[in-house]
Design a protein that fits this description.
Chain A: This is Serine/threonine protein phosphatase PrpC. The complex is a heterodimer of chains A (256) and B (452). Chain A is an alpha+beta fold. Chain A has one domain: Phosphatase 2c, domain 1, CATH 3.60.40. Chain A has seven helices and twelve strands. The relative contact order of chain A is 0.20. Chain B has 452 residues and is of the alpha+beta class. Helices cover 17% and strands 30% of the residues of chain B. Classes of the chains: A alpha+beta (256), B alpha+beta (452). Chains A and B meet through helix 2 and strand 10 of A and strand 26 and strand 31 of B.
């Protein structure tokens, strides 16, 4: 069960964020794959990059992944395949950007839930985030690839200082932007029923607190997709009221 | 000719005696025996001589005393430890300076032959009143080294402790068949070490609780130029100095190699303290860092390509032995290592941890990856590949280039429990890991992340 919200926001005219969610049935169980991408770049480059990545990853899910599942591949093999695809996308975005002398880049945060393997795979690059929300707590499962977050990790600045740091939008890693041979983060984990996972771009999370998110997105009160989308809308409006200028995108899934 | 003395403990009439067995022909010196027995308060165990047709022994009354070997197992403050050494220094000095006595007759072969009177807070040493000192039992350096090795000390001043340990190790390293009986350390040297090098001042005798009333200052006979002559019943305060001296070497990648003992050898062979196994320009044993008379030095150990200090060029001057100070750059041929003496840390640590590396200073070199220990949440930074660390011993993390991309591999060299994302990696095999990858090392979970 999933729902999403995405908007260009109050200020920007275009929405450079992209997202997709796909479900596939395999052996009587539903595999779920979703991701959000936050495009970066002038003119239309940002949304091109994010949209392209979403499209190609969706293709990967329908073709390569389906093939892997049929062959009974392990989660590590699947990860490798995602990694290969993301690097391939990185190369083609770089090639396109060079040809059109544009700046193009996108973040990518995706979650793939495979009930057959009882595992989930998280792929992540950039400053979008994946939250795990239960009735008790909310937890960030990804680490931001941004200058500010890196400084926090290295103990140069504190988390409080990070909130007001002027370098908010500087990324250390993403797909595109002329980067080559970078590595993306993956984590393989276990999941259980009655958990919510929420993917969001940086526009969604900066003006609201984690507690506010958890309050509205916890599994017990989101009984169906309509309620879920109502809660996401509510949070989105709160973000806009809070003065967010960026595009706002969030996608959540409740496992049941 | 020079043998060792055998000792054993006897219990007679409610008293405990340490008995030192002698050869039958050994001739005792009665004057010495009397002198020692009259100067017990210096710190000599009272002697009784028993000779029969079958045996020739000295008996030392050690009732109500604790063997030093046992006493030092209890954790004591550093001040106390040095006060024991200081008392010993005085006994040693008294022996050496008093006519008719010989410091070579002190029975120091084993810590259990030296006694400590807890009530009077005093050290007592057995003396062999023999006319010929044919026993090998008075090696001061060995004695102090054993003491240093076995004592459990709360360190309040790491500098002093480290300097002291290094000086002893340095002297121990020089031990050979030609070393004099005292192990090459005179009482004056010991005095200098304690008071000048370590700056351990001797205060006026502080009256102890029971004031050790047996002190008519016989030590005055020992001469006047050493102000430290008293009955040994005093408190020693360690002078806290700002300069601490836990030293370490730092390589180009800011990896740190703590110098926890001397001589600290550097070379290609894996048994070196710093082994540079992958460098062909480094000799098997290339150079060593030592500590002598309160000074650090680096010496070349006959390397093929040479060791250089602060300047490396094709025609730069090779060094053979040079003193070094913090900040000097030692070149093992072309590989630079910055020698750094850590700044002061008066934190209390147990002696076993004395060699532990201190928190590294802020790194200027960018870390390229890191591990997070799942149980302690500690971060282990990676600055260079191939990466190894003590916490993850037996495994190597390396980077492999793969066309336009790279792989990070974990190789199990000699760890008997390693699994990556749930699949076992036996010793001798390697597997690809990725940023965000979890692995279990001896049951502890670690997550690996790359920084870009």
């Amino acid at each position: 069960m999933f729902s999403y919200v995405t908007t260009e926001g109050a200020v920007r005219k275009v929405n450079q964020d992209s997202l997709f969610a796909a479900e596939a049935e395999f052996g009587g169980e539903n595999i779920f794959f979703a991701a959000v991408c936050d495009g970066v770049g002038g003119l239309s480059s940002g949304e091109k990059a994010s949209g392209y990545v979403c499209k190609r990853m969706n293709e990967w899910f329908a073709e390569d992944f389906a093939d892997l599942m049929r062959r009974g591949a392990s989660i590590l093999k699947i990860r490798e395949s995602v990694d290969d695809r993301l690097h391939e996308l990185n190369d083609s975005i770089n090639a396109y950007a060079e040809k059109h002398s544009a700046d193009m880049a996108t973040t990518f945060t995706g979650i793939l839930i495979i009930p057959q393997l009882k595992r989930m795979l998280i792929a992540h690059v950039g400053d979008s985030r994946l939250y795990k929300i239960t009735d008790e707590e909310i937890k960030i499962l990804t680490s931001d690839h941004s200058v500010v977050a890196q400084d926090v990790r290295n103990g140069v600045i504190t988390a409080e200082m990070a909130e007001t740091d002027p370098r908010q939008n500087q990324l250390t890693n993403c797909i595109g932007a002329g980067l080559d041979d970078t590595s993306y983060d993956y984590s393989i984990g276990e999941y259980s029923e009655n958990e919510c996972y929420m993917l969001c771009t940086d526009g969604f999370r900066k003006k609201i607190t984690a507690d506010e998110m958890q309050f509205l997105l916890k599994p017990s009160i989101n009984e169906d997709e309509k309620i879920m989308s109502g809660h996401l809308e509510k949070l989105k409006n709160k973000v806009i009221k809070g003065g967010e200028k960026d595009n706002i995108t969030a996608l959540m899934v409740k496992l049941c | 000719m020079a043998g060792s003395v055998t000792t054993k403990l006897l219990y007679q009439n409610c008293d405990t005696f340490m008995q030192a067995g002698l050869k039958k022909k050994d001739r005792i010196d009665e004057d010495q025996l009397q002198l020692i027995n009259s100067k017990r308060d210096i710190g000599f165990l009272g002697i009784r001589w028993e000779k029969t047709a079958t045996r020739n022994v000295f008996k030392y009354n050690v009732s109500n005393m604790t063997a030093l070997s046992e006493y030092i197992k209890q954790t004591m403050p550093q001040e106390k430890y040095f006060s024991i050494i200081n008392q010993f220094q005085k006994i040693y000095e008294f022996c050496a300076r008093t006519e008719g006595l010989s410091a070579d007759n002190l029975l120091l072969s084993d810590l259990k032959n030296v006694y400590y009177d807890v009530e009077r807070q005093k050290v007592f040493v057995a003396y062999l009143p023999l006319s010929e000192n044919i026993y090998k039992c008075s090696n001061v350096v060995k004695f102090l080294s054993k003491l240093n090795k076995n004592a459990s000390i709360t360190i309040t001043n790491g500098t002093v402790m480290q300097k002291y340990s290094f000086s002893l190790e340095d002297l121990m390293g020089k031990q050979n068949s030609k070393t004099p009986k005292n192990g090459g350390m005179s009482y004056a040297q010991l005095y200098t070490l304690l008071h000048d090098v370590l700056s351990i001042p001797v205060e006026d005798p502080v009256p102890a609780a029971d004031t050790a009333a047996d002190s008519p200052s016989p030590a005055a006979a020992a001469g006047a130029d050493v102000p430290a002559d008293d009955d040994g019943d005093h408190t020693i305060l360690v002078n806290r100095r700002s300069s601490d001296c836990l030293a370490y070497l730092k390589d180009e990648n800011n990896r740190e190699f703590p110098i926890d003992h001397v001589p600290f050898t550097i070379g290609r062979r894996p048994d070196n303290d710093l082994s540079l196994t992958d460098k062909g320009t480094v000799s098997k044993v290339h150079a060593a860092i030592g500590f002598e008379d309160g000074q650090w030095f680096v010496e070349d150990r006959g390397s093929a390509n040479g060791t250089f200090l602060n300047d490396f060029a094709e025609n730069a001057r090779r060094i053979s032995k040079e003193t070094i100070t913090s900040g000097d750059v030692i070149y093992i041929y072309d590989a630079p290592f910055v020698f750094t003496v850590n700044s002061g840390d008066a934190a209390t640590v147990i002696v076993g941890a004395a060699g532990k590396k201190q928190e590294p200073p802020k790194n200027k070199v960018k870390k390229i990856a890191y591990f997070i220990n799942g149980s302690s949440n500690e971060r282990i930074p990676v600055f260079v590949y191939p990466f190894t660390c003590a916490e993850l011993s037996g495994i190597v993390i390396d980077r492999e280039s793969n066309g336009s991309r790279h792989n990070i591999c974990i190789e199990n060299i000699s760890c008997n429990s390693l699994s990556v994302e749930g699949s076992d990696v036996p010793a001798g095999e390697k597997t690809v890991i990725f940023s965000g990858c979890n692995f279990l090392y001896h049951g502890i979970s670690y997550t690996f992340y790359e920084e870009n």
